[in-house]
Amino acid sequence: MKSLQELLQPWLSYTTMLCFENLCIDSRQIKTGDLFLAMPGHQVDGRQFITQAINQGAVAIIVHTDNPAEHGHIKLVENITPVISFFELANQVAHLAQRAYPLDTTKLNLAAVTGTNGKTSVTQLMAQLVELTQQRAAILGTVGNGLWGQLQQTDNTTPDATTCAQQLHRFQQQGATFIAMEVSSHGLVQKRINTQPFSLAIFTNLTRDHLDYHGNIQNYALAKKRLFNLPQIKQHLFNIDDPTGAKWYEEFQNKAASYSLNPDKKADYTLHITDTHQNGFSAQLHWQNDQVDVRTPLLGTFNLSNLLAALAGLHLLGHDLKILCEQVQYLRPVTGRMECFKVKQQPMCVVDYAHTPDALEQALKALQQHCQGQLWCIVGCGGERDVGKRPIMAAIAEQHAQKLILTADNPRSESVEAILLHMKQGLKAPEKVEFEPIRQTAIQKALAQAKPQDLILIAGKGHETYQEINGIKNDYNERLFVQDLLKEAS
Predict the structure, then answer these.
(1) For residue range 144-175, what is the model confidence (pLDDT) as tens digits?
(2) Which fold would CATH assign to domain 102-330?
(3) Taking the complete model, does pTM exceed 0.70, yes or no?
(4) Which of 313, 34, 39 is nearest to 160 (CA)?
(5) Nearest C-alpha neighbor of 363 from the set 207, 224, 489
(6) CA-CA-CA-CA torsion sign (185, 189, 193, 199)
(7) Nearest CA among 455, 431, 456 for reference residue 443
(8) Residue 103: how many CB atoms within 10 A of its CB?
Protein backbone atom coordinates (compact mmCIF):
# COMPACT_ATOMS: atom_id res chain seq x y z
CA MET A 1 0.00 0.00 0.00
CA LYS A 2 1.13 3.56 -0.72
CA SER A 3 0.43 6.73 1.22
CA LEU A 4 -1.64 9.37 -0.55
CA GLN A 5 -0.17 11.96 1.79
CA GLU A 6 3.39 11.11 0.72
CA LEU A 7 2.42 10.94 -2.94
CA LEU A 8 1.01 14.48 -2.96
CA GLN A 9 3.58 16.05 -0.65
CA PRO A 10 5.50 18.05 -3.33
CA TRP A 11 2.32 19.70 -4.60
CA LEU A 12 -0.16 20.07 -1.75
CA SER A 13 -0.76 19.27 1.89
CA TYR A 14 -3.10 16.32 2.41
CA THR A 15 -3.23 15.31 6.05
CA THR A 16 -5.72 12.45 6.03
CA MET A 17 -4.00 9.08 6.36
CA LEU A 18 -5.25 7.25 3.30
CA CYS A 19 -3.47 4.47 1.41
CA PHE A 20 -3.95 3.11 -2.09
CA GLU A 21 -2.82 0.14 -4.11
CA ASN A 22 -2.11 1.47 -7.61
CA LEU A 23 -2.46 4.56 -9.76
CA CYS A 24 -4.87 4.21 -12.67
CA ILE A 25 -5.86 6.58 -15.50
CA ASP A 26 -8.39 4.20 -17.10
CA SER A 27 -11.57 3.82 -15.05
CA ARG A 28 -12.27 0.45 -16.68
CA GLN A 29 -9.14 -0.97 -15.06
CA ILE A 30 -9.88 0.27 -11.54
CA LYS A 31 -9.74 -2.37 -8.81
CA THR A 32 -10.65 -2.06 -5.14
CA GLY A 33 -8.12 0.13 -3.38
CA ASP A 34 -6.82 1.97 -6.47
CA LEU A 35 -6.34 5.71 -6.90
CA PHE A 36 -7.98 7.15 -10.03
CA LEU A 37 -6.38 10.06 -11.91
CA ALA A 38 -9.24 11.78 -13.76
CA MET A 39 -8.03 14.06 -16.51
CA PRO A 40 -8.67 15.01 -20.16
CA GLY A 41 -7.07 12.58 -22.60
CA HIS A 42 -6.43 12.56 -26.33
CA GLN A 43 -9.68 10.75 -27.08
CA VAL A 44 -11.85 10.86 -23.95
CA ASP A 45 -12.05 12.92 -20.75
CA GLY A 46 -11.44 10.79 -17.67
CA ARG A 47 -13.37 13.26 -15.54
CA GLN A 48 -16.56 11.84 -17.02
CA PHE A 49 -15.89 8.50 -15.32
CA ILE A 50 -15.39 9.49 -11.69
CA THR A 51 -18.62 7.83 -10.57
CA GLN A 52 -17.72 4.65 -12.44
CA ALA A 53 -14.28 4.58 -10.80
CA ILE A 54 -15.80 4.98 -7.34
CA ASN A 55 -18.30 2.20 -8.04
CA GLN A 56 -15.41 -0.06 -9.03
CA GLY A 57 -13.60 0.52 -5.75
CA ALA A 58 -11.40 3.59 -6.12
CA VAL A 59 -10.43 4.86 -2.65
CA ALA A 60 -9.82 8.40 -3.89
CA ILE A 61 -9.90 10.53 -7.03
CA ILE A 62 -7.39 13.15 -8.14
CA VAL A 63 -9.05 15.31 -10.76
CA HIS A 64 -7.48 17.69 -13.28
CA THR A 65 -8.39 21.38 -13.11
CA ASP A 66 -7.25 24.28 -15.25
CA ASN A 67 -8.05 26.74 -12.47
CA PRO A 68 -5.11 27.28 -10.07
CA ALA A 69 -7.51 28.59 -7.40
CA GLU A 70 -9.11 25.12 -7.20
CA HIS A 71 -5.81 23.33 -6.52
CA GLY A 72 -6.09 21.24 -3.37
CA HIS A 73 -9.86 21.55 -2.97
CA ILE A 74 -11.44 18.36 -1.66
CA LYS A 75 -15.01 17.17 -2.20
CA LEU A 76 -16.35 14.04 -0.55
CA VAL A 77 -18.61 11.81 -2.64
CA GLU A 78 -21.33 10.34 -0.39
CA ASN A 79 -19.24 11.60 2.55
CA ILE A 80 -16.68 8.85 1.90
CA THR A 81 -14.55 9.10 -1.23
CA PRO A 82 -12.34 12.21 -1.54
CA VAL A 83 -12.14 13.93 -4.91
CA ILE A 84 -9.04 16.16 -4.86
CA SER A 85 -8.62 18.94 -7.42
CA PHE A 86 -5.12 19.16 -8.87
CA PHE A 87 -3.99 22.07 -11.05
CA GLU A 88 -2.79 20.83 -14.48
CA LEU A 89 -2.76 17.22 -13.36
CA ALA A 90 -2.22 16.05 -16.94
CA ASN A 91 1.25 17.65 -16.90
CA GLN A 92 2.23 16.01 -13.60
CA VAL A 93 1.13 12.41 -14.13
CA ALA A 94 4.65 11.17 -14.92
CA HIS A 95 5.97 12.80 -11.72
CA LEU A 96 3.19 11.24 -9.64
CA ALA A 97 3.85 7.86 -11.22
CA GLN A 98 7.55 8.05 -10.44
CA ARG A 99 6.81 8.82 -6.80
CA ALA A 100 4.34 5.95 -6.58
CA TYR A 101 6.70 3.48 -8.27
CA PRO A 102 10.30 4.52 -7.49
CA LEU A 103 13.38 2.89 -8.99
CA ASP A 104 16.71 2.24 -7.29
CA THR A 105 19.07 3.63 -9.94
CA THR A 106 22.12 2.48 -7.98
CA LYS A 107 21.18 -1.08 -8.96
CA LEU A 108 19.58 -0.49 -12.36
CA ASN A 109 20.53 0.79 -15.81
CA LEU A 110 17.57 2.05 -17.82
CA ALA A 111 18.12 2.61 -21.55
CA ALA A 112 15.76 4.44 -23.92
CA VAL A 113 15.84 3.71 -27.67
CA THR A 114 14.06 5.91 -30.19
CA GLY A 115 14.04 6.22 -33.98
CA THR A 116 11.76 5.20 -36.86
CA ASN A 117 13.27 1.75 -37.35
CA GLY A 118 15.39 -0.51 -35.19
CA LYS A 119 13.93 0.22 -31.75
CA THR A 120 12.68 -3.31 -31.18
CA SER A 121 15.84 -4.93 -32.52
CA VAL A 122 18.20 -2.76 -30.48
CA THR A 123 16.30 -3.23 -27.22
CA GLN A 124 15.98 -6.98 -27.72
CA LEU A 125 19.63 -7.40 -28.69
CA MET A 126 20.70 -5.42 -25.62
CA ALA A 127 18.52 -7.57 -23.38
CA GLN A 128 19.81 -10.79 -24.92
CA LEU A 129 23.43 -9.72 -24.48
CA VAL A 130 22.86 -8.81 -20.84
CA GLU A 131 21.19 -12.16 -20.22
CA LEU A 132 24.08 -13.96 -21.95
CA THR A 133 26.42 -12.34 -19.41
CA GLN A 134 24.35 -13.90 -16.60
CA GLN A 135 22.40 -10.81 -15.56
CA ARG A 136 18.63 -10.23 -15.61
CA ALA A 137 17.21 -7.94 -18.27
CA ALA A 138 13.74 -6.66 -19.10
CA ILE A 139 12.09 -4.92 -22.06
CA LEU A 140 9.24 -2.51 -22.69
CA GLY A 141 8.34 -2.31 -26.35
CA THR A 142 6.40 -3.28 -29.44
CA VAL A 143 6.80 -7.04 -29.12
CA GLY A 144 5.90 -7.06 -25.43
CA ASN A 145 6.84 -6.09 -21.90
CA GLY A 146 8.55 -8.19 -19.25
CA LEU A 147 11.71 -9.98 -18.21
CA TRP A 148 13.60 -11.40 -21.17
CA GLY A 149 11.94 -14.67 -22.16
CA GLN A 150 8.69 -13.78 -20.39
CA LEU A 151 7.30 -10.98 -22.56
CA GLN A 152 3.60 -10.16 -22.37
CA GLN A 153 1.90 -8.61 -25.38
CA THR A 154 1.09 -4.92 -25.24
CA ASP A 155 -1.07 -2.51 -27.25
CA ASN A 156 1.36 0.43 -27.29
CA THR A 157 5.09 0.68 -27.96
CA THR A 158 5.38 3.13 -25.06
CA PRO A 159 2.74 2.61 -22.34
CA ASP A 160 1.03 5.45 -20.48
CA ALA A 161 3.01 7.11 -17.68
CA THR A 162 1.43 5.19 -14.81
CA THR A 163 1.66 1.79 -16.51
CA CYS A 164 5.24 2.49 -17.56
CA ALA A 165 6.34 3.42 -14.03
CA GLN A 166 4.49 0.47 -12.50
CA GLN A 167 6.05 -2.03 -14.88
CA LEU A 168 9.58 -0.67 -14.53
CA HIS A 169 9.24 -0.88 -10.76
CA ARG A 170 7.96 -4.46 -10.97
CA PHE A 171 10.77 -5.56 -13.28
CA GLN A 172 13.37 -4.27 -10.85
CA GLN A 173 11.60 -6.04 -8.00
CA GLN A 174 11.82 -9.22 -10.09
CA GLY A 175 15.60 -8.88 -10.32
CA ALA A 176 16.27 -6.92 -13.50
CA THR A 177 19.50 -4.92 -13.39
CA PHE A 178 19.01 -3.64 -16.94
CA ILE A 179 15.84 -2.50 -18.72
CA ALA A 180 15.67 -1.45 -22.37
CA MET A 181 12.68 0.61 -23.39
CA GLU A 182 11.39 1.56 -26.82
CA VAL A 183 10.32 5.20 -26.80
CA SER A 184 7.82 6.20 -29.49
CA SER A 185 7.19 9.67 -30.86
CA HIS A 186 3.63 9.46 -29.51
CA GLY A 187 4.96 8.63 -26.04
CA LEU A 188 7.34 11.59 -26.16
CA VAL A 189 4.71 14.10 -27.31
CA GLN A 190 2.34 12.85 -24.61
CA LYS A 191 5.10 13.08 -21.96
CA ARG A 192 4.69 9.47 -20.84
CA ILE A 193 8.36 8.98 -19.90
CA ASN A 194 9.53 12.48 -18.97
CA THR A 195 10.56 11.67 -15.41
CA GLN A 196 12.05 8.20 -15.84
CA PRO A 197 15.71 8.04 -14.74
CA PHE A 198 17.24 6.87 -18.01
CA SER A 199 20.96 6.15 -17.91
CA LEU A 200 21.27 6.25 -21.70
CA ALA A 201 19.32 7.38 -24.77
CA ILE A 202 19.96 5.87 -28.22
CA PHE A 203 18.87 7.26 -31.61
CA THR A 204 18.72 4.83 -34.54
CA ASN A 205 17.39 6.80 -37.54
CA LEU A 206 14.62 9.03 -38.84
CA THR A 207 12.50 8.29 -41.91
CA ARG A 208 8.87 8.84 -42.89
CA ASP A 209 6.34 7.42 -40.44
CA HIS A 210 3.34 8.49 -38.32
CA LEU A 211 2.69 11.61 -40.39
CA ASP A 212 -1.02 11.02 -39.84
CA TYR A 213 -0.33 11.98 -36.21
CA HIS A 214 2.49 14.53 -36.47
CA GLY A 215 1.44 16.24 -39.70
CA ASN A 216 4.91 16.51 -41.26
CA ILE A 217 8.42 15.10 -40.97
CA GLN A 218 9.67 18.20 -39.13
CA ASN A 219 7.19 17.74 -36.27
CA TYR A 220 7.98 14.03 -36.21
CA ALA A 221 11.69 14.79 -35.83
CA LEU A 222 11.04 17.33 -33.07
CA ALA A 223 9.00 14.71 -31.22
CA LYS A 224 11.92 12.27 -31.31
CA LYS A 225 14.36 14.97 -30.25
CA ARG A 226 12.45 15.55 -27.02
CA LEU A 227 14.10 12.45 -25.57
CA PHE A 228 17.58 13.94 -25.85
CA ASN A 229 16.51 17.19 -24.20
CA LEU A 230 15.46 15.41 -21.00
CA PRO A 231 17.88 16.75 -18.37
CA GLN A 232 18.27 13.50 -16.42
CA ILE A 233 19.92 11.60 -19.29
CA LYS A 234 23.69 11.79 -18.99
CA GLN A 235 24.74 9.75 -22.05
CA HIS A 236 23.48 9.92 -25.64
CA LEU A 237 24.34 7.57 -28.51
CA PHE A 238 23.66 8.57 -32.12
CA ASN A 239 23.77 6.72 -35.43
CA ILE A 240 25.78 9.14 -37.57
CA ASP A 241 25.09 7.12 -40.73
CA ASP A 242 21.66 8.74 -40.50
CA PRO A 243 21.62 12.47 -41.46
CA THR A 244 19.43 13.42 -38.50
CA GLY A 245 21.60 11.37 -36.15
CA ALA A 246 24.75 13.07 -37.45
CA LYS A 247 23.18 16.50 -36.96
CA TRP A 248 22.01 15.78 -33.43
CA TYR A 249 25.37 14.24 -32.51
CA GLU A 250 26.97 17.60 -33.29
CA GLU A 251 24.37 19.41 -31.18
CA PHE A 252 24.73 17.13 -28.14
CA GLN A 253 28.40 16.30 -28.58
CA ASN A 254 29.40 17.31 -25.04
CA LYS A 255 27.61 14.25 -23.67
CA ALA A 256 27.20 12.07 -26.78
CA ALA A 257 28.88 9.13 -28.48
CA SER A 258 28.47 8.00 -32.09
CA TYR A 259 28.33 4.77 -34.05
CA SER A 260 28.69 4.00 -37.76
CA LEU A 261 29.15 1.18 -40.27
CA ASN A 262 31.23 3.51 -42.44
CA PRO A 263 34.96 3.15 -41.70
CA ASP A 264 35.59 6.61 -43.17
CA LYS A 265 33.49 8.30 -40.53
CA LYS A 266 35.19 9.17 -37.27
CA ALA A 267 32.66 7.47 -35.03
CA ASP A 268 33.35 6.30 -31.51
CA TYR A 269 32.20 2.80 -32.46
CA THR A 270 32.45 1.27 -35.94
CA LEU A 271 31.71 -2.20 -37.31
CA HIS A 272 33.48 -3.30 -40.51
CA ILE A 273 32.08 -6.23 -42.51
CA THR A 274 34.77 -8.78 -43.36
CA ASP A 275 32.56 -11.52 -44.84
CA THR A 276 28.92 -12.00 -45.89
CA HIS A 277 27.53 -15.53 -45.91
CA GLN A 278 24.13 -17.24 -46.05
CA ASN A 279 23.89 -17.45 -42.27
CA GLY A 280 24.94 -13.91 -41.40
CA PHE A 281 28.12 -11.82 -41.23
CA SER A 282 31.65 -11.75 -39.96
CA ALA A 283 32.81 -8.29 -38.91
CA GLN A 284 35.34 -6.36 -36.87
CA LEU A 285 34.35 -3.95 -34.12
CA HIS A 286 36.59 -0.91 -33.56
CA TRP A 287 36.50 1.48 -30.59
CA GLN A 288 38.97 3.55 -28.54
CA ASN A 289 42.08 2.19 -30.30
CA ASP A 290 40.87 -1.36 -29.70
CA GLN A 291 39.21 -3.97 -31.89
CA VAL A 292 37.64 -7.43 -31.75
CA ASP A 293 36.25 -9.91 -34.29
CA VAL A 294 32.49 -10.54 -34.32
CA ARG A 295 30.45 -13.29 -35.98
CA THR A 296 26.69 -12.80 -36.06
CA PRO A 297 23.77 -14.90 -37.34
CA LEU A 298 21.73 -11.76 -38.05
CA LEU A 299 20.77 -10.98 -41.66
CA GLY A 300 20.93 -7.55 -43.26
CA THR A 301 23.35 -4.64 -43.02
CA PHE A 302 20.82 -2.62 -41.04
CA ASN A 303 20.83 -5.38 -38.41
CA LEU A 304 24.58 -4.88 -38.09
CA SER A 305 23.80 -1.25 -37.31
CA ASN A 306 21.28 -2.38 -34.68
CA LEU A 307 23.85 -4.78 -33.22
CA LEU A 308 26.45 -2.03 -33.12
CA ALA A 309 24.01 0.27 -31.29
CA ALA A 310 23.35 -2.48 -28.73
CA LEU A 311 27.04 -3.21 -28.16
CA ALA A 312 28.04 0.46 -27.97
CA GLY A 313 25.14 1.28 -25.66
CA LEU A 314 26.02 -1.49 -23.22
CA HIS A 315 29.68 -0.48 -23.30
CA LEU A 316 28.71 3.08 -22.35
CA LEU A 317 26.83 1.57 -19.40
CA GLY A 318 29.96 -0.19 -18.18
CA HIS A 319 29.86 -3.64 -19.84
CA ASP A 320 33.08 -5.21 -21.16
CA LEU A 321 32.89 -5.08 -24.97
CA LYS A 322 35.13 -8.08 -25.54
CA ILE A 323 33.00 -10.24 -23.27
CA LEU A 324 29.86 -9.01 -25.04
CA CYS A 325 31.33 -9.78 -28.47
CA GLU A 326 32.04 -13.36 -27.41
CA GLN A 327 28.28 -13.75 -26.90
CA VAL A 328 27.18 -12.25 -30.23
CA GLN A 329 27.37 -15.62 -32.01
CA TYR A 330 24.64 -16.93 -29.67
CA LEU A 331 22.13 -14.15 -30.40
CA ARG A 332 18.75 -15.18 -31.77
CA PRO A 333 17.01 -13.14 -34.49
CA VAL A 334 14.45 -10.77 -33.05
CA THR A 335 10.90 -12.09 -33.33
CA GLY A 336 9.39 -11.01 -36.64
CA ARG A 337 12.49 -9.03 -37.63
CA MET A 338 14.25 -10.62 -40.61
CA GLU A 339 13.23 -13.98 -39.17
CA CYS A 340 14.08 -16.86 -41.50
CA PHE A 341 12.04 -20.00 -42.15
CA LYS A 342 13.51 -22.72 -44.38
CA VAL A 343 12.90 -26.36 -45.20
CA LYS A 344 14.58 -28.54 -47.83
CA GLN A 345 13.53 -28.06 -51.44
CA GLN A 346 11.49 -24.95 -50.58
CA PRO A 347 12.36 -21.25 -50.94
CA MET A 348 13.57 -19.45 -47.85
CA CYS A 349 10.86 -17.23 -46.32
CA VAL A 350 11.74 -14.17 -44.28
CA VAL A 351 9.08 -12.56 -42.08
CA ASP A 352 9.83 -8.94 -41.27
CA TYR A 353 7.89 -6.10 -39.65
CA ALA A 354 8.98 -3.61 -42.34
CA HIS A 355 5.99 -1.30 -42.70
CA THR A 356 7.68 1.99 -43.60
CA PRO A 357 9.32 2.88 -46.93
CA ASP A 358 12.82 2.97 -45.45
CA ALA A 359 12.41 -0.29 -43.53
CA LEU A 360 11.11 -2.07 -46.64
CA GLU A 361 13.95 -0.78 -48.78
CA GLN A 362 16.55 -1.77 -46.19
CA ALA A 363 15.06 -5.26 -45.86
CA LEU A 364 15.00 -5.86 -49.62
CA LYS A 365 18.52 -4.55 -50.12
CA ALA A 366 19.75 -6.71 -47.26
CA LEU A 367 18.16 -9.87 -48.62
CA GLN A 368 19.67 -9.34 -52.08
CA GLN A 369 23.01 -10.21 -50.47
CA HIS A 370 21.68 -13.57 -49.30
CA CYS A 371 19.45 -14.51 -52.27
CA GLN A 372 20.72 -17.06 -54.82
CA GLY A 373 17.64 -16.97 -57.05
CA GLN A 374 14.81 -14.47 -57.47
CA LEU A 375 13.77 -12.16 -54.66
CA TRP A 376 10.03 -12.09 -53.99
CA CYS A 377 8.20 -9.48 -51.97
CA ILE A 378 4.73 -9.71 -50.43
CA VAL A 379 3.65 -6.40 -48.90
CA GLY A 380 0.63 -4.22 -48.15
CA CYS A 381 -0.15 -1.00 -46.31
CA GLY A 382 -2.28 -0.39 -43.24
CA GLY A 383 -5.66 1.26 -43.41
CA GLU A 384 -6.43 4.55 -41.62
CA ARG A 385 -2.76 5.49 -41.66
CA ASP A 386 -0.44 7.67 -43.74
CA VAL A 387 -1.94 7.42 -47.25
CA GLY A 388 1.03 9.16 -48.85
CA LYS A 389 3.44 6.32 -48.16
CA ARG A 390 1.37 3.72 -50.06
CA PRO A 391 2.65 4.43 -53.61
CA ILE A 392 6.15 4.91 -52.18
CA MET A 393 6.07 1.44 -50.59
CA ALA A 394 4.91 -0.12 -53.85
CA ALA A 395 7.59 1.68 -55.87
CA ILE A 396 10.33 0.48 -53.51
CA ALA A 397 9.10 -3.11 -53.66
CA GLU A 398 8.92 -3.01 -57.46
CA GLN A 399 12.44 -1.58 -57.71
CA HIS A 400 14.18 -4.10 -55.45
CA ALA A 401 12.23 -7.36 -55.92
CA GLN A 402 12.01 -9.47 -59.08
CA LYS A 403 8.56 -10.79 -58.12
CA LEU A 404 5.96 -8.68 -56.33
CA ILE A 405 2.57 -9.45 -54.81
CA LEU A 406 0.64 -6.55 -53.26
CA THR A 407 -1.85 -7.60 -50.62
CA ALA A 408 -3.58 -6.61 -47.36
CA ASP A 409 -1.81 -5.56 -44.17
CA ASN A 410 -4.14 -4.33 -41.40
CA PRO A 411 -6.88 -2.72 -43.54
CA ARG A 412 -8.86 -1.74 -40.43
CA SER A 413 -12.06 -0.09 -41.68
CA GLU A 414 -10.72 0.68 -45.17
CA SER A 415 -11.31 -1.38 -48.29
CA VAL A 416 -8.28 -3.50 -49.20
CA GLU A 417 -9.02 -2.83 -52.86
CA ALA A 418 -8.88 0.94 -52.25
CA ILE A 419 -5.54 0.61 -50.46
CA LEU A 420 -4.15 -1.48 -53.32
CA LEU A 421 -5.27 1.17 -55.82
CA HIS A 422 -3.27 3.76 -53.86
CA MET A 423 -0.24 1.46 -53.92
CA LYS A 424 -0.69 0.81 -57.65
CA GLN A 425 -0.10 4.53 -58.33
CA GLY A 426 3.57 4.04 -57.42
CA LEU A 427 4.19 1.22 -59.92
CA LYS A 428 5.96 1.65 -63.26
CA ALA A 429 4.79 -1.71 -64.63
CA PRO A 430 1.60 -2.70 -62.77
CA GLU A 431 0.89 -5.41 -65.35
CA LYS A 432 3.84 -7.39 -63.97
CA VAL A 433 2.59 -7.18 -60.39
CA GLU A 434 0.08 -9.54 -58.82
CA PHE A 435 -2.70 -8.08 -56.67
CA GLU A 436 -4.14 -10.46 -54.08
CA PRO A 437 -6.37 -8.88 -51.40
CA ILE A 438 -6.25 -11.91 -49.10
CA ARG A 439 -2.86 -11.98 -47.39
CA GLN A 440 -2.76 -15.72 -46.63
CA THR A 441 -3.61 -16.50 -50.26
CA ALA A 442 -0.82 -14.19 -51.44
CA ILE A 443 1.71 -16.15 -49.37
CA GLN A 444 0.37 -19.47 -50.65
CA LYS A 445 0.65 -18.26 -54.24
CA ALA A 446 4.24 -17.14 -53.78
CA LEU A 447 5.27 -20.46 -52.23
CA ALA A 448 3.56 -22.37 -55.03
CA GLN A 449 5.39 -20.40 -57.74
CA ALA A 450 8.82 -19.75 -56.21
CA LYS A 451 11.79 -22.03 -56.80
CA PRO A 452 13.94 -23.53 -54.01
CA GLN A 453 16.78 -21.06 -54.62
CA ASP A 454 14.40 -18.07 -54.41
CA LEU A 455 13.86 -15.96 -51.31
CA ILE A 456 10.45 -14.58 -50.24
CA LEU A 457 10.18 -11.49 -48.07
CA ILE A 458 6.81 -11.27 -46.32
CA ALA A 459 6.74 -7.72 -45.01
CA GLY A 460 4.56 -5.71 -42.67
CA LYS A 461 3.20 -8.03 -39.99
CA GLY A 462 6.33 -9.39 -38.32
CA HIS A 463 5.66 -10.27 -34.69
CA GLU A 464 1.95 -9.36 -34.77
CA THR A 465 -0.50 -12.12 -33.94
CA TYR A 466 -3.59 -10.55 -35.51
CA GLN A 467 -4.93 -8.94 -38.65
CA GLU A 468 -7.31 -6.05 -38.07
CA ILE A 469 -10.23 -6.04 -40.50
CA ASN A 470 -13.36 -3.89 -40.04
CA GLY A 471 -12.37 -3.04 -36.49
CA ILE A 472 -11.89 -6.68 -35.45
CA LYS A 473 -8.48 -8.10 -34.58
CA ASN A 474 -8.64 -11.55 -36.12
CA ASP A 475 -6.18 -14.16 -34.87
CA TYR A 476 -3.35 -14.41 -37.38
CA ASN A 477 0.24 -15.31 -36.54
CA GLU A 478 2.13 -14.94 -39.80
CA ARG A 479 5.23 -16.64 -38.45
CA LEU A 480 3.27 -19.78 -37.55
CA PHE A 481 1.29 -19.61 -40.80
CA VAL A 482 4.51 -19.61 -42.85
CA GLN A 483 6.03 -22.41 -40.75
CA ASP A 484 2.96 -24.58 -41.27
CA LEU A 485 2.90 -23.95 -45.04
CA LEU A 486 6.55 -24.93 -45.34
CA LYS A 487 6.03 -28.10 -43.30
CA GLU A 488 3.09 -29.10 -45.51
CA ALA A 489 5.17 -28.51 -48.64
CA SER A 490 8.21 -30.46 -47.47
Answers:
(1) 899 998 988 877 777 888 999 999 999 999 99
(2) UDP-N-acetylmuramoyl-L-alanine:D-glutamate ligase (3.40.1190)
(3) yes
(4) 39
(5) 207
(6) positive
(7) 456
(8) 18
